[in-house]
Recover the amino acids of this structure.
């Protein structure tokens, strides 16, 4: 058991180191190596944060969805811990996406915020998962909170396809996707140096995400063990 | 604010927020590990007293 724990700590250390290397490489490629955009100039460099942040948030809420479905089906605490941990980090990355978008919006659109379909749906996603976290912390009956949060987590995830398709379904200020578009491959649409910078930053964000998730998941496991031991002691 | 000002503002906020979250998580984890270790030790000593 001690050996497993040691191996796990070591692998998390490697993951953290890899994430740090990825972040530093991403900063170099995003800020120094990639060329400025022909129309937007240097401010377009915010894209190397903005796209990886939202894709990481989507990944996080996908894990909330999977964990929530599994918890409602099998009632295993590990799945609930996974969903709760992923929701917390997903909220962080969604909030950061909105902040980056707002900073990018000011010099390109002339406003910090507009009630555009994509922006509004992303704000709704943030509110749903902020509500998820509040539900978890405010409800006293933990099993009820876990079940209710699982339902909310599943419903919240359904907002993501709406966010992605919003630029096609409504007339919006937000540009359509440059990378995830059905009619064109990314390399036909984006300069290779920009695409490389984006790919490096995306990998760095994913590595960082899994590192943070592993730490947050461990915290959830320890909290559960503490609760179980306290319950045993009181009975 | 110039173009680079917006870029540095965005990068600064993002990496500061992630750093703060990581430090907070680290502190929460350390506190929980200490609490668990103390709980385990007190339960072990209680068990030893009973036997």
């Amino acid at each position: 058991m001690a050996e497993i724990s040691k191996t796990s700590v070591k692998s998390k250390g490697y993951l953290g180191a890899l994430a740090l290397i990825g972040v530093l490489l991403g900063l170099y490629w995003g800020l120094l190596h990639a060329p400025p955009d022909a129309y937007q100039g240097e401010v377009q460099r915010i894209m190397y944060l903005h796209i990886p942040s939202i894709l990481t948030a989507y990944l996080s809420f996908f894990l909330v969805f999977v964990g929530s479905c599994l918890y409602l089906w099998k009632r295993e605490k590990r799945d609930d811990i996974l969903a709760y941990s992923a929701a917390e980090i997903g909220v962080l990355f969604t909030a950061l996406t909105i902040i980056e978008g707002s900073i990018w919006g000011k010099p390109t659109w002339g406003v910090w915020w507009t009630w555009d379909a994509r922006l509004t749906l992303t704000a709704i996603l943030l509110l749903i998962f902020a509500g998820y976290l509040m539900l978890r912390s405010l409800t006293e009956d933990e099993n009820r909170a876990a079940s209710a949060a699982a339902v909310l987590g599943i419903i919240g995830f359904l907002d993501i396809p709406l966010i992605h398709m919003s630029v096609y379904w409504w007339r919006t200020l937000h540009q359509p996707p440059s990378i995830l578009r059905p009619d064109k491959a990314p390399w036909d649409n984006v300069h290779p140096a920009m695409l490389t910078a984006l790919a490096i930053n995306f990998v760095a964000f994913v590595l960082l995400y899994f590192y943070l998730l592993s730490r947050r998941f461990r915290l959830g496991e320890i909290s559960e063990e503490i609760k179980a031991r306290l319950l045993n002691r009181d009975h | 604010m110039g173009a680079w000002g917006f870029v540095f503002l965005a990068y600064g906020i993002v990496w500061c927020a992630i750093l703060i979250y990581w430090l907070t998580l680290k502190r929460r984890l350390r506190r929980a590990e200490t609490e668990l270790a103390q709980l385990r030790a007190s339960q072990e000593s209680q068990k030893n007293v009973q036997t």
Summary: The helical segments of chain A are 2-33, 47-74, 77-109, 117-138, 142-157, 159-169, 186-189, 192-234. The CA atoms of residues 117 and 171 of chain A lie 8 Å apart. Chain A touches chain B at residues 23, 27, 31, 41-43, 45-46, 49-50, 53, 89, 92, 95-96, 99-100, 103-104, 106-107, 208, 212, 215-216, 218-219, 222-223, 225-226, 229-230, 233 (CB under 8 Å). The radius of gyration of chain A is 20 Å.
